[in-house]
Amino acid sequence: MKWFVGLGNPGKQYESTRHNIGFMALDRFAERHSIKITSSKCKGLLGEGVIGGQKVYLLKPQTYMNLSGESMRSFMDFYKASIEDLIVIYDDLDTPFGSIRLRYQGSAGGHNGIKSTIAHLGTQSFNRIRMGISRPAPGRDIADYVLHTFSKEEFAGMPAVLDRTCDAMEHALSHPFETTMAKFNA
Q: Which helix (H) or strand (E) holds 46?
């Protein structure tokens, strides 16, 4: 079993914001594999399917970004899921837009969704796909930036970055995460 968690905020007003790129990636992956993320469970929206003979769960926490870890902990407790089978997908200011970076441990780096994840999982060691959103121009408020929609140029590049993220997710289903990191961080 593998479980993927895309971070974001619920509600129409956040749907196309930079902070919701994790939700967008999960939606694209679900579409590729005909998985419906509609079940309201574990403080989130949950979808499940089988890909290449492996059970896969897709979780979109509905707790708002700052409390994402609550939903993950609820999922872990209910499904007896292991952290080793988890991959968290989220936005990253320190990665250029259009790029993804895979890691298997590290600090929150100021990301409140990851702070909550670390607090509720009790470890900084979990697999993650950081999707680049770049930093705002100097002087611009970071909260405003991440809760704002992508530019027209960024929207034009969005299909490619979502597809690359989905490719990494698919690769991780049948390969060790270190192998996936080596392939997609290159």
A: strand 44-51
CATH 3.40.50.1470 matches 2-184: yes
The two three-digit tokens of residue 55, written as one number: 């059970």
C-alpha span between 164 and 130 (Å, rounded): 12
**Is 175 labeled as catalytic in the residue annotation?**
no
Question: 121 near 71, Cβ under 8 Å?
Answer: no
Using CA atoms, how far apart are residues 30 and 12, in angstroms rounded to an integer?
19
CA angle 7, 110, 9 (to 5 degrees): 25
Q: Which residue has the tokens 């780096």?
A: 109
Within 8 A by CB and 6+ apart from 92, the residues are 101, 109, 111, 130, 131, 132, 133
Amino acid identity for residue 2 in this structure: K
Nearest to 166 by CA among 64, 51, 40, 39: 51
pLDDT by residue for the chain (186 residues), tens only, comes to 999 999 999 999 999 999 999 999 999 999 999 999 999 999 999 999 999 999 999 999 999 999 999 999 999 999 999 999 999 999 999 999 999 999 999 999 999 999 999 999 999 999 999 999 999 999 999 999 999 999 999 999 999 999 999 999 999 999 999 999 999 997
- pTM, two decimals, is 0.97
> Which one is catalytic: 19, 33, 111, 120?
19
59: which strand partners? 5, 46
